[in-house]
Write a structure and sequence with these properties.
Blueprint (H helix, E strand, L loop, with lengths): L2 H13 L5 H20 L9 H14 L3 E6 L4 E7 L8 E2 L4 H14 L14 H5 L7 H5 L12 H5 L7 H9 L11 E2 L3 H14 L3 H10 L8 E2 L12 E3 L1 H12 L3 E2 L2 E2 L3 H8 L8 E3 L8 E2 L4 E6 L11 E6 L7 E5 L4 E7 L5 H18 L5
Length: 375
Protein backbone atom coordinates (compact mmCIF):
# COMPACT_ATOMS: atom_id res chain seq x y z
CA UNK A 1 0.00 0.00 0.00
CA UNK A 2 1.41 3.42 -0.95
CA UNK A 3 1.79 6.19 1.65
CA UNK A 4 -0.60 8.53 -0.22
CA UNK A 5 -3.35 5.93 -0.08
CA UNK A 6 -2.78 5.36 3.63
CA UNK A 7 -2.96 9.08 4.34
CA UNK A 8 -6.14 9.26 2.26
CA UNK A 9 -7.63 6.48 4.36
CA UNK A 10 -6.78 8.42 7.51
CA UNK A 11 -8.38 11.61 6.17
CA UNK A 12 -11.56 9.82 5.15
CA UNK A 13 -11.81 8.23 8.59
CA UNK A 14 -12.19 11.67 10.15
CA UNK A 15 -14.27 13.20 7.39
CA UNK A 16 -17.15 10.75 7.47
CA UNK A 17 -19.40 11.82 10.29
CA UNK A 18 -21.38 8.62 10.12
CA UNK A 19 -18.33 6.54 11.02
CA UNK A 20 -18.16 5.54 14.66
CA UNK A 21 -15.43 6.83 16.94
CA UNK A 22 -14.11 3.28 17.33
CA UNK A 23 -13.91 2.75 13.55
CA UNK A 24 -12.10 6.08 13.07
CA UNK A 25 -9.61 5.18 15.80
CA UNK A 26 -8.86 1.73 14.32
CA UNK A 27 -8.31 3.19 10.84
CA UNK A 28 -6.06 5.93 12.21
CA UNK A 29 -4.00 3.47 14.26
CA UNK A 30 -3.61 1.08 11.31
CA UNK A 31 -2.60 3.88 8.98
CA UNK A 32 0.02 5.35 11.30
CA UNK A 33 1.62 1.94 11.84
CA UNK A 34 1.90 1.32 8.11
CA UNK A 35 3.32 4.80 7.46
CA UNK A 36 5.92 4.19 10.19
CA UNK A 37 6.91 0.83 8.68
CA UNK A 38 7.20 2.21 5.16
CA UNK A 39 9.25 5.24 6.16
CA UNK A 40 11.62 3.36 8.44
CA UNK A 41 12.09 0.10 6.54
CA UNK A 42 15.78 -0.77 5.93
CA UNK A 43 17.34 0.31 2.67
CA UNK A 44 18.74 -2.67 0.79
CA UNK A 45 21.54 -2.19 -1.75
CA UNK A 46 20.42 -1.88 -5.35
CA UNK A 47 22.84 -3.91 -7.40
CA UNK A 48 23.56 -2.96 -11.00
CA UNK A 49 24.72 -5.95 -12.97
CA UNK A 50 25.15 -4.48 -16.46
CA UNK A 51 28.95 -4.73 -16.23
CA UNK A 52 28.69 -8.35 -15.06
CA UNK A 53 26.30 -9.21 -17.91
CA UNK A 54 28.75 -7.68 -20.38
CA UNK A 55 31.80 -9.44 -18.94
CA UNK A 56 30.02 -12.79 -18.78
CA UNK A 57 28.90 -12.42 -22.39
CA UNK A 58 32.46 -11.68 -23.47
CA UNK A 59 33.76 -14.74 -21.62
CA UNK A 60 31.00 -17.22 -22.51
CA UNK A 61 33.03 -19.07 -25.13
CA UNK A 62 36.11 -19.15 -22.93
CA UNK A 63 34.08 -20.60 -20.05
CA UNK A 64 32.63 -23.35 -22.21
CA UNK A 65 29.52 -21.81 -23.88
CA UNK A 66 27.08 -23.75 -21.67
CA UNK A 67 27.34 -21.82 -18.42
CA UNK A 68 25.29 -20.96 -15.35
CA UNK A 69 26.36 -18.18 -13.01
CA UNK A 70 24.76 -17.71 -9.59
CA UNK A 71 25.40 -15.19 -6.82
CA UNK A 72 23.80 -15.37 -3.37
CA UNK A 73 24.17 -13.46 -0.16
CA UNK A 74 23.20 -15.14 3.11
CA UNK A 75 19.51 -15.44 2.26
CA UNK A 76 18.80 -14.02 -1.21
CA UNK A 77 19.60 -14.65 -4.86
CA UNK A 78 21.57 -11.65 -6.12
CA UNK A 79 22.20 -12.70 -9.72
CA UNK A 80 21.38 -15.55 -12.08
CA UNK A 81 22.48 -16.09 -15.67
CA UNK A 82 21.87 -19.20 -17.76
CA UNK A 83 23.72 -19.47 -21.07
CA UNK A 84 23.74 -22.03 -23.87
CA UNK A 85 21.97 -25.29 -23.09
CA UNK A 86 22.70 -25.25 -19.33
CA UNK A 87 20.25 -24.10 -16.68
CA UNK A 88 20.52 -24.14 -12.91
CA UNK A 89 19.04 -27.65 -12.73
CA UNK A 90 21.39 -29.22 -15.31
CA UNK A 91 23.41 -32.05 -13.77
CA UNK A 92 27.08 -32.41 -14.72
CA UNK A 93 30.34 -33.83 -13.31
CA UNK A 94 32.14 -31.34 -11.07
CA UNK A 95 35.55 -33.04 -10.67
CA UNK A 96 37.64 -31.50 -7.86
CA UNK A 97 34.77 -29.37 -6.60
CA UNK A 98 33.97 -32.69 -4.91
CA UNK A 99 36.87 -32.22 -2.50
CA UNK A 100 35.10 -29.41 -0.64
CA UNK A 101 32.06 -31.65 -0.12
CA UNK A 102 34.19 -34.48 1.23
CA UNK A 103 36.06 -32.15 3.59
CA UNK A 104 32.72 -30.89 4.93
CA UNK A 105 31.56 -34.46 5.53
CA UNK A 106 34.73 -35.16 7.52
CA UNK A 107 34.02 -32.08 9.64
CA UNK A 108 30.50 -33.37 10.35
CA UNK A 109 32.12 -36.45 11.89
CA UNK A 110 34.46 -34.17 13.84
CA UNK A 111 31.36 -32.32 15.14
CA UNK A 112 29.89 -35.65 16.22
CA UNK A 113 33.04 -36.52 18.17
CA UNK A 114 33.70 -39.61 16.04
CA UNK A 115 36.86 -38.30 14.41
CA UNK A 116 39.65 -35.77 14.93
CA UNK A 117 41.72 -34.02 12.28
CA UNK A 118 44.79 -35.13 14.20
CA UNK A 119 43.79 -38.80 14.32
CA UNK A 120 46.39 -41.09 12.75
CA UNK A 121 44.92 -42.99 9.84
CA UNK A 122 46.33 -46.30 11.12
CA UNK A 123 43.65 -46.16 13.81
CA UNK A 124 41.02 -46.72 11.12
CA UNK A 125 42.96 -48.32 8.27
CA UNK A 126 45.28 -51.11 9.47
CA UNK A 127 46.67 -51.57 5.94
CA UNK A 128 48.65 -48.34 6.43
CA UNK A 129 50.08 -49.70 9.67
CA UNK A 130 51.22 -52.76 7.76
CA UNK A 131 53.21 -50.58 5.37
CA UNK A 132 54.59 -48.26 8.03
CA UNK A 133 52.39 -45.28 7.16
CA UNK A 134 50.01 -45.21 10.11
CA UNK A 135 51.45 -41.87 11.34
CA UNK A 136 49.75 -39.91 8.52
CA UNK A 137 46.88 -37.85 9.99
CA UNK A 138 43.42 -36.97 8.73
CA UNK A 139 44.60 -33.35 8.46
CA UNK A 140 47.44 -34.45 6.17
CA UNK A 141 44.83 -36.17 4.01
CA UNK A 142 42.60 -33.09 3.67
CA UNK A 143 45.58 -30.88 2.83
CA UNK A 144 47.38 -33.08 0.25
CA UNK A 145 50.37 -33.55 2.53
CA UNK A 146 50.39 -37.34 3.02
CA UNK A 147 53.81 -37.61 1.36
CA UNK A 148 52.68 -40.67 -0.62
CA UNK A 149 53.88 -40.75 -4.22
CA UNK A 150 51.21 -39.42 -6.58
CA UNK A 151 50.82 -38.41 -10.22
CA UNK A 152 49.86 -35.04 -11.62
CA UNK A 153 46.13 -34.49 -12.18
CA UNK A 154 45.02 -35.47 -15.69
CA UNK A 155 42.16 -37.08 -17.56
CA UNK A 156 44.34 -40.18 -17.94
CA UNK A 157 44.68 -40.57 -14.17
CA UNK A 158 40.90 -40.25 -13.80
CA UNK A 159 40.18 -42.93 -16.39
CA UNK A 160 42.80 -45.30 -14.92
CA UNK A 161 40.72 -45.48 -11.72
CA UNK A 162 38.40 -47.88 -13.55
CA UNK A 163 40.64 -50.75 -12.49
CA UNK A 164 39.44 -50.38 -8.89
CA UNK A 165 36.12 -51.95 -7.97
CA UNK A 166 35.81 -50.24 -4.59
CA UNK A 167 37.21 -47.33 -2.61
CA UNK A 168 38.72 -49.84 -0.17
CA UNK A 169 40.66 -51.51 -2.99
CA UNK A 170 42.03 -48.19 -4.21
CA UNK A 171 43.01 -46.94 -0.74
CA UNK A 172 44.73 -50.24 0.09
CA UNK A 173 46.79 -49.72 -3.08
CA UNK A 174 47.76 -46.25 -1.80
CA UNK A 175 49.05 -47.85 1.39
CA UNK A 176 51.46 -49.96 -0.65
CA UNK A 177 52.95 -47.01 -2.54
CA UNK A 178 56.32 -45.61 -1.64
CA UNK A 179 56.68 -42.51 0.49
CA UNK A 180 58.02 -39.54 -1.48
CA UNK A 181 58.55 -37.28 1.58
CA UNK A 182 57.51 -37.40 5.20
CA UNK A 183 53.91 -36.43 5.85
CA UNK A 184 53.45 -32.71 6.36
CA UNK A 185 56.69 -31.70 4.62
CA UNK A 186 55.20 -30.59 1.31
CA UNK A 187 51.98 -30.29 -0.70
CA UNK A 188 51.17 -32.40 -3.76
CA UNK A 189 47.68 -31.86 -5.15
CA UNK A 190 45.87 -35.04 -6.10
CA UNK A 191 43.31 -37.65 -5.12
CA UNK A 192 45.15 -39.73 -2.52
CA UNK A 193 44.45 -37.75 0.66
CA UNK A 194 40.75 -37.04 0.14
CA UNK A 195 40.09 -40.63 -0.92
CA UNK A 196 41.83 -41.94 2.22
CA UNK A 197 39.61 -39.60 4.26
CA UNK A 198 36.54 -40.88 2.41
CA UNK A 199 37.51 -44.48 3.17
CA UNK A 200 37.90 -43.62 6.87
CA UNK A 201 34.32 -42.33 6.82
CA UNK A 202 33.21 -45.64 5.32
CA UNK A 203 34.93 -47.55 8.12
CA UNK A 204 33.46 -45.38 10.89
CA UNK A 205 29.92 -45.37 9.44
CA UNK A 206 30.01 -48.97 8.14
CA UNK A 207 28.35 -47.67 4.97
CA UNK A 208 29.43 -46.81 1.44
CA UNK A 209 30.73 -43.29 0.98
CA UNK A 210 28.08 -42.25 -1.55
CA UNK A 211 25.28 -43.33 0.80
CA UNK A 212 26.65 -41.65 3.91
CA UNK A 213 27.41 -38.30 2.27
CA UNK A 214 23.87 -38.25 0.91
CA UNK A 215 22.44 -38.86 4.39
CA UNK A 216 24.73 -36.50 6.31
CA UNK A 217 25.22 -33.63 3.85
CA UNK A 218 23.12 -33.74 0.69
CA UNK A 219 19.73 -34.46 2.28
CA UNK A 220 19.99 -31.68 4.92
CA UNK A 221 21.07 -29.24 2.19
CA UNK A 222 18.31 -30.36 -0.21
CA UNK A 223 20.94 -31.32 -2.80
CA UNK A 224 18.60 -33.80 -4.46
CA UNK A 225 20.48 -34.05 -7.77
CA UNK A 226 23.96 -34.39 -6.28
CA UNK A 227 25.59 -37.79 -6.10
CA UNK A 228 28.95 -39.51 -6.02
CA UNK A 229 28.86 -42.01 -8.86
CA UNK A 230 31.06 -44.83 -10.06
CA UNK A 231 31.30 -43.27 -13.52
CA UNK A 232 35.04 -43.95 -13.61
CA UNK A 233 35.31 -47.06 -11.45
CA UNK A 234 35.18 -46.96 -7.65
CA UNK A 235 33.44 -44.09 -5.88
CA UNK A 236 35.80 -41.10 -5.86
CA UNK A 237 35.53 -38.69 -2.87
CA UNK A 238 38.17 -36.40 -4.37
CA UNK A 239 36.57 -35.88 -7.77
CA UNK A 240 33.61 -38.12 -8.55
CA UNK A 241 30.54 -36.03 -7.76
CA UNK A 242 27.84 -34.87 -10.14
CA UNK A 243 25.73 -31.90 -9.16
CA UNK A 244 23.72 -28.92 -10.38
CA UNK A 245 24.21 -25.19 -9.95
CA UNK A 246 21.22 -24.97 -7.60
CA UNK A 247 22.43 -27.88 -5.48
CA UNK A 248 26.03 -26.76 -5.12
CA UNK A 249 24.91 -23.23 -4.29
CA UNK A 250 22.99 -24.63 -1.31
CA UNK A 251 26.31 -25.96 -0.02
CA UNK A 252 28.04 -22.60 -0.52
CA UNK A 253 25.23 -20.67 1.19
CA UNK A 254 25.49 -23.04 4.15
CA UNK A 255 29.19 -22.21 4.50
CA UNK A 256 28.48 -18.49 4.12
CA UNK A 257 25.95 -18.77 6.95
CA UNK A 258 28.51 -20.41 9.26
CA UNK A 259 27.11 -23.89 8.82
CA UNK A 260 23.41 -23.07 8.94
CA UNK A 261 20.92 -23.83 6.14
CA UNK A 262 17.27 -22.81 6.35
CA UNK A 263 17.49 -22.51 10.11
CA UNK A 264 19.22 -25.87 10.65
CA UNK A 265 22.85 -26.13 11.79
CA UNK A 266 24.29 -28.64 9.33
CA UNK A 267 27.91 -27.91 10.25
CA UNK A 268 29.11 -26.23 13.42
CA UNK A 269 30.53 -22.70 13.29
CA UNK A 270 33.76 -24.09 14.72
CA UNK A 271 34.03 -26.52 11.81
CA UNK A 272 33.39 -23.80 9.24
CA UNK A 273 36.14 -21.78 10.91
CA UNK A 274 38.41 -24.83 10.62
CA UNK A 275 37.65 -25.09 6.89
CA UNK A 276 38.76 -21.47 6.53
CA UNK A 277 42.14 -21.95 8.21
CA UNK A 278 45.08 -21.85 5.80
CA UNK A 279 47.19 -25.00 6.11
CA UNK A 280 50.11 -24.33 3.75
CA UNK A 281 52.69 -21.71 2.88
CA UNK A 282 54.25 -21.08 -0.56
CA UNK A 283 57.39 -23.07 0.24
CA UNK A 284 55.24 -26.18 0.88
CA UNK A 285 53.79 -26.30 -2.64
CA UNK A 286 55.57 -29.05 -4.59
CA UNK A 287 52.83 -29.53 -7.18
CA UNK A 288 49.62 -27.58 -7.86
CA UNK A 289 47.49 -27.43 -11.02
CA UNK A 290 47.82 -24.42 -13.30
CA UNK A 291 44.49 -22.98 -12.16
CA UNK A 292 45.82 -22.67 -8.58
CA UNK A 293 49.36 -21.42 -8.98
CA UNK A 294 50.56 -19.15 -6.15
CA UNK A 295 47.60 -20.02 -3.91
CA UNK A 296 47.64 -21.57 -0.45
CA UNK A 297 45.35 -24.40 0.62
CA UNK A 298 42.88 -24.81 3.46
CA UNK A 299 40.89 -28.04 4.01
CA UNK A 300 39.49 -29.21 0.68
CA UNK A 301 39.64 -25.76 -0.95
CA UNK A 302 42.04 -23.01 -2.04
CA UNK A 303 42.59 -19.73 -0.21
CA UNK A 304 41.90 -17.02 -2.80
CA UNK A 305 42.25 -14.21 -0.26
CA UNK A 306 43.57 -14.29 3.30
CA UNK A 307 43.04 -12.18 6.41
CA UNK A 308 44.16 -11.98 10.03
CA UNK A 309 43.42 -15.01 12.23
CA UNK A 310 40.03 -15.74 13.75
CA UNK A 311 39.81 -16.04 17.55
CA UNK A 312 39.45 -19.81 17.08
CA UNK A 313 42.56 -20.09 14.88
CA UNK A 314 45.75 -21.65 16.20
CA UNK A 315 48.27 -19.08 17.35
CA UNK A 316 49.90 -17.52 14.32
CA UNK A 317 47.48 -19.23 11.92
CA UNK A 318 46.12 -17.52 8.82
CA UNK A 319 42.51 -17.54 7.70
CA UNK A 320 41.04 -17.45 4.20
CA UNK A 321 38.51 -14.68 3.67
CA UNK A 322 37.70 -16.17 0.26
CA UNK A 323 37.72 -19.90 -0.52
CA UNK A 324 37.33 -21.68 -3.86
CA UNK A 325 37.41 -25.28 -5.06
CA UNK A 326 37.61 -25.27 -8.88
CA UNK A 327 37.25 -28.47 -10.86
CA UNK A 328 38.93 -29.88 -13.95
CA UNK A 329 35.73 -29.48 -16.01
CA UNK A 330 35.48 -25.73 -15.40
CA UNK A 331 33.01 -25.37 -12.53
CA UNK A 332 34.24 -22.75 -10.08
CA UNK A 333 32.56 -22.47 -6.64
CA UNK A 334 33.69 -19.69 -4.30
CA UNK A 335 32.65 -18.08 -1.00
CA UNK A 336 33.71 -14.55 -0.10
CA UNK A 337 33.12 -14.44 3.64
CA UNK A 338 34.32 -10.85 3.95
CA UNK A 339 32.04 -9.31 1.32
CA UNK A 340 29.25 -11.71 2.17
CA UNK A 341 28.44 -13.58 -1.03
CA UNK A 342 28.65 -17.02 -2.61
CA UNK A 343 29.76 -17.25 -6.25
CA UNK A 344 29.34 -20.13 -8.68
CA UNK A 345 30.26 -20.65 -12.32
CA UNK A 346 28.80 -24.02 -13.35
CA UNK A 347 29.87 -25.56 -16.64
CA UNK A 348 31.38 -28.67 -18.21
CA UNK A 349 34.54 -28.21 -20.20
CA UNK A 350 38.23 -28.65 -19.58
CA UNK A 351 39.62 -26.03 -17.23
CA UNK A 352 42.61 -24.11 -18.52
CA UNK A 353 44.74 -21.45 -16.87
CA UNK A 354 42.98 -18.60 -18.64
CA UNK A 355 39.73 -19.42 -16.90
CA UNK A 356 41.30 -18.82 -13.53
CA UNK A 357 41.95 -15.26 -14.62
CA UNK A 358 38.41 -15.08 -16.01
CA UNK A 359 36.84 -16.08 -12.70
CA UNK A 360 38.98 -13.63 -10.75
CA UNK A 361 38.04 -10.88 -13.22
CA UNK A 362 34.36 -11.75 -12.83
CA UNK A 363 34.83 -11.68 -9.06
CA UNK A 364 36.35 -8.20 -9.32
CA UNK A 365 33.21 -7.00 -11.10
CA UNK A 366 31.05 -8.51 -8.35
CA UNK A 367 33.25 -6.97 -5.63
CA UNK A 368 32.58 -3.50 -6.96
CA UNK A 369 28.87 -4.02 -6.42
CA UNK A 370 29.07 -5.76 -3.05
CA UNK A 371 31.64 -3.50 -1.44
CA UNK A 372 35.28 -3.80 -2.46
CA UNK A 373 36.65 -2.92 0.96
CA UNK A 374 38.10 -6.16 2.30
CA UNK A 375 41.80 -6.36 3.08
Amino acid sequence: MQISKIIHCTFISFKKATMSYKSRFVCLKFSLVLIFLLLLQPVFPQYKWADLDKKLGEEQKNLGNNVVMLLWNKDSLLYKKEMGTFNSKTQAPIASCSKWLTAALVMIYVDEGKLSLDDKIGRWLPEFDRYGKSYITVRHCLTHMTGIRDEKVSLKSIVERRKYSSLQEEVDAFAAREIRVNAGEDFWYGSIGLNIAGRIIEVISKRNFDAIIKQKLFNPLEMRKTTFTNLYGAVNPSGGAQSTADDYMNFLVMLLNKGKFKGKQVLSEKSVDALMQVQTKPSFIKYAPENAKNLNYALGSWAIEEKSPLPTSPEGGRVASTLASPGLFGTWPMVDFCRGYAYLIFTKNLLVEERTNTNLELKAVVDKQTGDNCK
